[in-house]
Design brief:
9 helices, 232 residues, mainly alpha
Length: 232
């Protein structure tokens, strides 16, 4: 078994601890478990990570700061600061994926499929904001959420472009990571504005934990083209 796989398995107890803490409403313990996962995975992947790269170091740095702010997420302003550092980390995740995208001439079917996917994402984001508008208190908070989801939309678009013109293991990891991030963020809004249910929080926490692991896998995986059969 590879060194990195051993450290991924070492994160499983942290995941179980995080979910257990959410069930019993011990938020600080859940934050400790998620924060610990970063250091466990860093110990397992540091040989494969190019920590001199800004995209790697700043993504990890901003993500850890966001996790630390989670301990003090009891006011509106702390919550917005947490989202700001998450948003900043997504910028460098997007920059890393953009490095591997190439301009290629696509056929009409691929262009149509791409436009349909972008249109669907824009529609769902628009509908989500229509629902949030009545829940969010002020214009500043609404503007901040707008910027945050615009950032997510860019992340999704880059992920689609990267996946459609790459067919590599790294692109598969990235598009899976993006889906985990987006769904986890939507579930976060559900738990805050609509349905503060334990099952929603558990699924959000599971996806966030999965996203941490996928991010380390993404940054440590080299870009290698795959045959289509290998994607199945």
């Amino acid at each position: 078994m590879k060194r990195s796989q051993v450290f991924i398995l070492a994160c499983v107890p942290m995941l179980i601890l995080s979910l257990w803490a959410l069930i019993y409403d011990i938020s600080w313990l859940s934050n400790v478990a998620e924060l610990s996962a970063y250091f466990i995975l860093l110990a397992g992947f540091y040989r494969k990570l190019n920590l001199k790269s800004l995209n790697v170091s700043l993504f990890l740095g901003f993500s850890v700061i966001a996790e630390i702010l989670g301990f003090f997420n009891d006011t509106q302003y702390t919550g917005l600061m947490l989202m700001f550092f998450q948003m900043a980390s997504y910028v460098f995740l997007t920059r890393e994926a953009h490095r591997y995208t190439e301009r290629e001439t696509a056929n009409r079917f691929m262009i149509l499929f791409f436009l349909m996917m972008i249109g669907a994402n824009c529609f769902f984001v628009y509908r989500h904001f229509q629902e949030l508008e009545s829940k969010i208190a002020g214009i500043v908070e609404f503007g901040f959420y707008s910027l945050y989801y615009l950032n997510l939309l860019v992340l999704v678009i880059v992920g689609l472009i990267y996946y459609l013109n790459s067919y590599s293991r790294k692109s598969v990891l990235f598009v899976t990571l993006v889906m985990a991030i987006v769904v986890a963020d939507i579930l976060r809004d559900m738990s805050v504005f609509y349905l503060p249910d334990t099952s929603v929080l558990l699924l959000k926490s599971f996806l966030q934990f999965s996203a941490i692991i996928l991010a380390f896998k993404f940054y440590s995986t080299k870009e290698r083209k795959l045959k289509l059969i290998n994607l199945v």
